[in-house]
Amino acid sequence: MARFFTPELDVDPDQIVLCSNCSTCRWTCTSYEEFRSEAMFAGGRLRLLRSYVEKNLPVDEGFVRAMYACSTCEQCVERCPIKVPYVRIIEDVRKKLVEMGKGPYGKLGVMGDMAFKHNNVFGENPRERGDWVKPDTKISDDSNWGYYVGCTASYKRPEIADATLRMLNYFGIEPQILGTEEKCCCSPLIRTGQVVRPIHEENEHGEMELLGTLEAEKFIVHNVEQMKSKGIEHVIFSCSGCYRTTTLDWPRFYRERHGILPFSTQHLTQFLALKLKKGELEWKGSYPETVTYHDPCHLGRHVGIFEPPRQILESIPGINLVEMERNRQNSVCCGAGGGFKAGFGENAINVAERRLNQALDTGATTIVSSCVFCKLNFLDAVKKRGVDIKVLNIEDLFISLMGLG
Amino acid sequence: MSASGDTTGIPYYHYRWKKKWLADYVAWPESTEQVSSIMKFASDRKIPVVPRGGGTCYYGSASPTRGGIVLDTKRMDKLIEVNKEEEWINVEAGAVWEILDTELRKQGLSLPVAPQSGVASTLAGWLAIGGKAGIGTPKFGSMVDNVVGMEVVRPDGTIDIVTGDDMMPFFGTSGITGVVTSIKLKVIPTPESTEGLMFAFQELERAIDALSRLSKTKTQPIYLRLTDLEYEWRIQGGLPPKTTGLFFVAATYSGTTDEVAESIKTSRGLFEIAGGEEIQQAYYEKNWEDRNIVEMKLKLEVPTLSMQNFWIPLPHIEPLVRKMYRIAKDYRINSCFYLVLGGSSMARLCVFAPSDHRHWMHFMSGKAMLHRLVKMMYRQGGELYTIGLQNTVYIKKYQPNDFKRFKALRKKWDRKGIMNPDKLTHCIMSYTRMNLMFTMNGNFRRLQAVLRRAKNILQIPVAYQEGHF
Is B419 inside a domain boundary? Predict the structure, then answer.
């Protein structure tokens, strides 16, 4: 085995040889469509990785850039004839790059710094994490329902957090929230390889001083223990990224040393679809417009939730739900995930613009999603590129049709 | 580096076939004029040019061997003109088969033929390796029968429109005569119905007999494939349901609903007479859906794919397959095959030696098996399907007429020898050296097997390799 793999990058050789270089993944890759470069799609990246590993080449900036110019949308895994776990490989490589001190790419390191200092990736004041709660909504201290808000809804899109809380209140649920005790779910950190990373800061003499080590596991354990201490049994998520991380990544980090997670997880679209199925959801208003649904990668391909959001939308009176050519498993990424937006801002907006144009091609006047990142990126594209389409999340529609807003 | 190197699955294996394995430049032209400028530049300075489409060829057809320029045509993918009345399209040669077909289907048209690698390969890529056997070829002929005309850039940079026999130097010549930039291609109205069936056979002779009979029927299938059990087992991750068969024939027809129903009836009759047992429709459908990725699915269980493609008449297949099983048994390695009907009773037989290149002896024994099969195939009549980098050494030895033809083409069109060097007309590796290496390797492996030291690293799913041959 040592014959071919003489590593600076000692990634698992079994993973690298999996890819057969058939390039099936090329033509659906978000990043290839944007950069049109052979190093910017799953197969090309693996080829690059293999060359670096086999030839033991020093890692340079181009390599780091290629490894980070991926939104980890998993479209490649969906297309791959042999389902090479590409996203896991790329996350491992990013982790390795961070360990080597060569990653993360560009400004992505700021997310880790901010998470270390402020418990959220935006560098906002952690004491203000629960400030989005409005006086006319209800939260409790003893419910077995919890609502994990996430950094983006807490600070950047508080209307999403508010809408979700109102929705839960509507169904008689007064959830507990962790408020100032809530820490980042670690989705952006895990996706960008910042699972363990030393944090440095420049001191007054201009020298880099070690502040401590960022450890994603500590964040996760803290969040789980907080929920456990509050007796939360069911957790609702409005953020697809948080939901994916909690459902797929948290058990990985938590189980080994602490046991199984003491609560179940549910995305709000699953919650609403269940209410619909039970006959507990009766719409009070109508939405007489042509609407198309964009599957968030984290909720769709990663976790497999495709139908509940559609069931909810189809039940809305007056709505005309149309599908984009690429939907469900084949849905196109919006360009916000995997650190792509934070690392390649303008490119992410280009990707979002293309997706919005695909939505317009269906004749839709509204694009609905169920992810805060997708909404954020789509709204940026609408603002900066002037795409004429309404961007909503399912919870936005809910509160406006139920007269809760 | 991912664009300038070798895009094949086992690039390290071919390092000794090359002098400089990375290109110095990669060009992504977007128009014929840009291709022409690049060719003029390269020609003036005698810089090697390696034209590349999808880069999916497993035999290194588009791998640099002396540095130079990789001329990647993937950005030339525009559909220039669609003529519904006369049923042809004019399309840039870097278009990907699957994407083009999807576009055409929106207009009620579809491509009559396409390669099995159509999800990633380009029009000119398939043309450059010959385009003889794929989906649609038994019914509509090979790619050469479906191309009306082409726009090409000669190695000296001149732009030409070629039709008829003038197109022949571009088929199966790996770009040594120039770069194809756009193709006028026949299209057909989207078929009303596409259906098929799959049968299992206990004996290879019977399966091939059924295949031969079917290849002579009036209405030809668009896809006819023969596989063995290990192949099916590996690509579908389990044995086919409710059957004890060892060989499997899948046939797909397209056309009008009545035509298809009639053809299915005929083929079912033929298969039943040959002693076949029909497989569940759902299993056939799974196979049909996977038609474009089926080779790669072998990698589900196998880290390294070694394979060889033969272009041989149907009657010559049986001895070759028997030999394959015998060698595999002797060497204690795995082997499996699939066969796709091309046209006129010629088929592409793809033999696999699944292995793991990190177990060098196992991997090289697979290669030695493929080498022995190639020699046997040449004795029996037939030729290699794809030439590329890896098989040029055989062309020189066993297909002297073709080798002369390629040399003449190179001399006529590429005097400076810049186009895709070390493909078709010259090979760095010597046949004697390779033959000696494989013979020694094979003998050593046999000795290992006799001494019970030949470890088979991959699980053999069924006992047929031991029992039946």
Answer: no
Q: How far is B405 from chain A (nearest CA, A)?
A: 31
| Letter string b/e over residues A241-276, b meaning 16 or more CB atoms within 10 A of that residue's CB | bbbbbbbebbbebbeeeeeebebebbbbbbbbbebb
CA-CA distance, A39 to A36, in Å (whole number)? Answer: 9
Q: Rounded to a whole number, what is the largest CA-CA distance in chain B?
A: 69
Q: How confident is the model at residue B345 (pLDDT cuts 50, 70, 90)?
A: confident
Domains and CATH numbers, chain A: 13-100 (1.10.1060.10), 108-272 (3.40.50), 279-401 (3.40.50.1860)
Domain boundary among B23, B46, B72: B72
Question: Are the beta carbons of A21 and B300 separated by less than 8 Å?
Answer: no
- Cβ(A46)–Cβ(A12) under 8 Å? no
Q: Which of A324-328, B98-102, B145-149, B385-389 has the lowest mean pLDDT?
A: B385-389
A99: left (phi over 0), alpha (psi -120 to 50) or beta: alpha
**Whole domain around residue B27: which residue ranges?**
11-72
Distance CA A139, CA A146 (A): 9
Give the residue from B133, B155, B189 where a domain finishes: B189
Report the alpha-carbon distance of residue A113 to residue A213 in Å, rounded.
10
pLDDT value at position B464?
41
Q: Domains in chain B: how many in total? A: 3
Of A21, A38, A45, the CB nearest to B9: A21
- pLDDT bracket for residue A2 (50, 70, 90): very low
Q: Which residues are bridge partners to B25 per DSSP?
A: B69
Is there a single domain that holds both residue B218 and residue B309? Answer: yes
Whether residue B107 is found in the same domain as residue B141: yes
Residue in chain A nearest B6 by alpha carbon: A47
Q: What is the ipTM of this complex?
A: 0.82
Compare all CA atoms of chain A with the CA of B102 and give the residue at the minimum distance.
Answer: A325
Between A1, A17, A27, which is nearest B96 by CB?
A27
